Amino acid sequence: MQQSDFAYELAADSAGLPLAVSIFADGDALRADMEEDVRSAGLNVRECGDLSQLLAGDARALGELVLVDCPHPDAAAMATLSRLDSRSARSGARLVISTTLDALDAVFGCCAQSAPQILIEPLRAERVIALGRVLAGIPKMRLRELSEDDRLTLLRLTEQVGHIAERLDKLDKANGGWGQKAGGGAFRFESPKEGYRAEDKLIRKPRPPLPDARLVREIIARRKARAEYFDPELFADPAWDMLLDLTAARVEHQRVSVTSLCIASGVPPTTALRWIGQMVDSGLFLRVEDDADRRRAFIELSDSAADAMARYFAEIGTEAMALA
Q1: Residue 2's pLDDT band (boundaries 50, 70, 90)?
Q2: Would you say residue 144 has pLDDT above 50?
Q3: Where are the transmembrane segments (predicted)?
């Protein structure tokens, strides 16, 4: 198989100027690492400061890429993230926000417009990969335009690198490496192919009813039970696990938070967030704002996805459902 030829030059805008990056994070060591990685990627650091500078709310010219580490957002931080999200959506700037699992729902709820990358307690390698994904997604910043095949290959490579980084982190903790936590990498599993749309795959006919929620929960429990005897990575299937969880929730008329859905996916939260974003884009999932609190959002099945799940269970039959 021929190796893909990626020709990289200094990442620049249409005027040939290096793309500017704003960095906001508490902790001198973390900021230094982020700044070093940004400069190594050929980008220009416009501003590098702590969170208080971002939260001050002063008018400032932010970069085309904004990196924010916000592990424990309070009300002021959430309001700032909401404004930053809106501003980025209008300007076309890219956002990469790192946070904790406990704060995920709050951060996700603040970012309804700009489609940021959200990283959960990331390794340094995962932050670097996030930069690579930003570069791959911005047009006219290469010496040579990437074809769609090249772009997909690059994204697959970033997932493989993330998996390797996770493995190395487990071995390297005693030697002062990049490892920041013991846990899964961010990009271990391939995402659905770009351009996939759920409606292209669904047949529009009268829909049979969804299965009993108790049966779907039993299927989920049986799938999870395998982890007691085998390495969970052998059976990782986040898309299907999330579809099952949302199917049961729809029958039960329950709302599912993004944190809950990440847990249901059975993969690291950052990986789950990428899957959720891809499945929202493909029309399988919907992001639904909380009417009582606009800072919160839930995930639910789209009607087309519910139609597909109902037809699937109707086709395989009740006796075979427990083997799903």
Answers
A1: very low
A2: no
A3: none
